[in-house]
Amino acid sequence: MGNVQTHGNLRDTEVEAQIPNRLSRITSNLILSLIDGDYFPCLILRPSTAIKEGLVVYVFHKNMETEIPSRNIIVTRGRPSKKK
Predict the structure, then answer these.
(1) Which of 46, 69, 49, 50 is nearest to 58 (CA)?
(2) What H or E segment, with its residue span, contains residue 43?
(3) Nearest-angstrom CA–CA distance, 33 and 39
(4) How far is 57 from 48, CA to CA, in rounded Å?
(5) What is the pLDDT of residues 56-74, one digit of tens each?
(6) Residue 2 pLDDT
(7) Could you give the dihedral angle defined by the CA atoms of residues 67, 40, 16 and 20, in that order, rounded to the nearest 10 degrees?
(8) Where are the alpha helices (DSSP H) in 19-64?
(9) Residues 13, 18, 21, CA angle at the centre, nearest 5°?
């Protein structure tokens, strides 16, 4: 089928520059995490002890628990908590 040649990297560095290195307020436990070049749905379990500002997550499709840096995630839209 296609005979496409790509020159350089397909990453969008402009968009990556806008992604925060640290997430201050995650409103959902369900995230998408970049693992091996693909995004997978994950459940946040706890903060990471091995990676600064990282998270321990459970990756559903790989049936594994792993630690990831917070800059490699997409937060799904959650309900904001109600302030009293």
Answers:
(1) 46
(2) strand 38-47
(3) 5
(4) 9
(5) 888 888 888 888 888 767 7
(6) 47
(7) -50
(8) none
(9) 100
Which residue do the tokens 């790989």 mark?
A: 62
> Side chain identity at 76, as an amino acid letter?
T
Domains of the chain: 27-75 (2.30.30)
Which residue type occupies 11? R
pLDDT digits (tens, 9 = 90+) for 5-47: 555 555 566 655 655 555 555 556 788 888 788 888 888 888 8
What is the reported pTM?
0.54
Give the amino acid at 30.
Answer: L
35 - beta bridge partners? 38
